[in-house]
Design a protein that fits this description.
A 7-stranded mixed beta sheet has the order 3-2-1-4-5-9-7, sandwiched between helices. The chain has a two-stranded antiparallel sheet with strand order 6-8. By secondary structure, it is an alpha/beta fold. The chain has 11 helices and 9 strands. The protein starts with a helix and ends with a strand. Helices cover 47% and strands 18% of the residues. The radius of gyration is 18 Å and the shape is globular.
Length: 275
Amino acid sequence: MSDSKLVETTKTYYDSTDADEFYHTIWGGEDIHIGIYELADEPIFQASKRTIQTMVSHVTPIMESTRILDLGAGYGGAARYLAARFLCQVECLNLSETENARNREKNKAVRLEDHITVTAGNFEELPYEEDRFDIVWSEEAFLHSGNKDKVFEQAKRVLKPGGQFIFTDPMQADDCPEGVLQPILDRIHLKELGSVKRYRELAAKHGFREKNVVEMPEQLVNHYSAVLHELKRKEDTLSKVVSKDYIERMKKGLQHWIDGGKKGYLNWGILHFEA
């Protein structure tokens, strides 16, 4: 699939009513990313917020003058946390206009619309000038890119010298056997996932310096297990607004992620680089 076709396919998926209702209902409406769990039965919302807090601990100090770009911002949960805590300016760039609309509504509801700007766009072609941001931030978005080299190139371009690039992503393990992730790749229309090794190579190619890489593959299993459990628990209610076919495909897809993680084929963590 070409890069432009992949972008359009991803946008169509996240703009769909099925996807929007699923993510907004199951993930708690603020975030669409993997959480860091301390307890087996911890709510998804709480674990997801801990991921944001952990990422913040890597990039502090953040001040009112700090300008942050959130790539693939989803419903904007990270942006609202950052803006509310630090009164900084956050730009949300996201493909889905359905998610963007919810993001704007939520920002207005908590009176943060003056601190958060929401723009429809593709993180492979950033609509910003050079040296604009202090931090480029992303959670669980880069897996959807068919041109991850371009993502790193664009992030470096818009970061100020010494700016920070921090992101999380579901990845394949560095030693993942060929072919075992095909069910996952077919679902997200990709030939491969990123990996810590691949992202380190891209970071070095584009002049980033590694600050810290924290690998937590167990949290991928924890999170998708929690999502699958929540989906089954709320299935009767969800089925009133989401198609049965989507729910069944989501169950199978989540189980593929869980199985791949348990077998050691998948990875997840926080990757932090400096421009």
